[in-house]
Specification:
6 strands, 15% strand, 182 residues, 2 domains, alpha+beta
Length: 182
């Protein structure tokens, strides 16, 4: 197991966690709120951003202009059923989402959700660590590496893991501050 490979996998976990954080509402309009929404379009679950042009005309609204007008009903339904908590307004050409200011209670719920997403990121990183350490132990059992090399590699993997979990904690603090800022 190469440590560079290990770090690349952990970086991917950090990026995935960051993308998850971007889908959490902060009280301001952001197109990434809609990243997780898929629409049933001709029998296939299709990401919303592939079916429509998404624009942010101001800080409190999102406009969705479908490429195919016949998909408007399906897009509205998908948004209504999603967990973003916004009601779509359809004028026949454009679907508008008004972003209401978040209440204190809703902000606290969003912080909890961010904490849950951060924990999922940490679990992914710990799984990468576990797999790497298992591989090193197998190499040690088959005498491919010495016991000292094994211990040194395991210590190095733990240091890398600690660094990446600290990075997720930093991202979480930034996101919590962003959510709680009125």
């Amino acid at each position: 197991m190469k440590l560079v490979e290990l770090e690349d996998n952990m970086k991917k976990s950090i990026e995935a966690t960051q993308r998850s954080f971007n889908t959490i509402r902060t009280g301001r309009a952001n197109a990434s709120l809609l990243d997780r929404i898929t629409v049933e379009y001709y029998g296939t679950e299709t990401p919303l951003n592939q079916l429509a042009n998404i624009s942010i005309p101001d800080a409190s609204s999102i406009n969705i202009l479908p490429y195919d007008k016949s998909s408007m009903g399906a897009i509205e339904k998908a948004i209504s059923l999603s967990d973003i908590g916004l009601n779509p307004n359809n004028d026949g050409k454009v679907i508008r989402l008004n972003i209401p200011p978040l209440t204190e209670e809703r902000r606290k719920e969003m912080v909890k959700l961010a904490g849950k997403l951060a924990e999922e990121g940490k679990v992914a990183i710990r799984n990468i660590r576990r797999d790497s350490i298992d591989l090193i132990r197998k190499q040690e059992k088959t005498n491919d590496i010495s016991e000292d090399e094994s211990r040194d590699l395991q210590n190095e993997i733990q240091k890398i893991t600690d660094r990446f979990t600290a990075r997720i904690d930093d991202l979480l603090k930034i996101k919590e501050k962003d959510i709680m800022t009125v």
